[in-house]
Amino acid sequence: MTNLVVTNLNKRFGGLHVLKDVNFEINGPELIGLIGPNGAGKTTVTNILDGAIKPNSGTVYLNGQRIDQLQPYQVARAGLGRTFQVTRSFRRMSVLDNLFVPALALNRGNSRAEIEEKAMEVLEFLTMAHLRNEYARALSGGQQKLLELGRLLMLDPEVIILDEPFAGVHPQLMKVIYSYIERVNDAGTAIILISHQMDSIFTLCRRLLVLNYGDLIADGVPDDVKRDPAVIEAYLGVEEEDTGAGKGGRAQP
């Protein structure tokens, strides 16, 4: 069973303390929303989890293996992968070849035929097999997001971080991406979803982590979190009694 344990994460950039003793744990295939106002520390947490930056203190363990001091490719091999808000496909390569890249990076000794079989399974799952020979640059914004998800699936990850997977996506395709996220999660992969679109967060996520100025101010089920006075204040800058939040007012995030 997937077990991600984040303990006392601290990160400073010069005199700016951007993460302050952040603690949380993921057990099993949870679907978790990581939210907070701009500048709350979401990107910093993500960059630490995937190995892009190192914490000043604290630890991250995935299934008993410490990963906070590993390089990104080592973190991916350990079972944690991520997408980016701005997609990073190889735009001059075909969709199929884009899926080959992460499989080759894993260097698991699979033959080309085995990798192609896996890639076609992923494309069938994403209903993109008909696009396998298209250049990535020819895909729509939503298809680019699905291609990034497909590249992650080639890694057989235990934990996926999805960074703004609905940004710039047509509303109709958003519902399609919803369904794929749910199916990946149902298949046993833990997902951390970062999104400024609260409808997607409350539709998909069963648990929310809320950051504000580097502090983890809430961790719980969505109905409880959106009524939490600290969360309301973080988003609106006012106390609950001044807004009518939780009583039919507009203050709920």
What does this structure look like?
By secondary structure, the chain is α/β, with parallel strands linked by helices. The protein has a single domain (3-220), classed as P-loop containing nucleotide triphosphate hydrolases (Rossmann fold, 3-Layer(aba) Sandwich). Helix content is 35%, strand content 24%. The chain contains 9 helices and 10 strands. The chain has helices at 42-49, 72-78, 95-106, 112-125, 141-153, 171-186, 198-204, 222-225, 229-236, and strands at 3-13, 16-27, 31-35, 57-62, 65-66, 80-82, 159-163, 190-194, 207-212, 215-220. It has a 6-stranded mixed β-sheet with strand order 6-7-8-3-9-10, with helices on both faces. A 4-stranded antiparallel β-sheet has the order 2-1-4-5, with helices on one face. β1 (3-13) and β2 (16-27) form a beta hairpin. It is globular, with a radius of gyration of 19 Å. The two termini are 32 Å apart. Mean pLDDT is 89; it is low at 238-252.
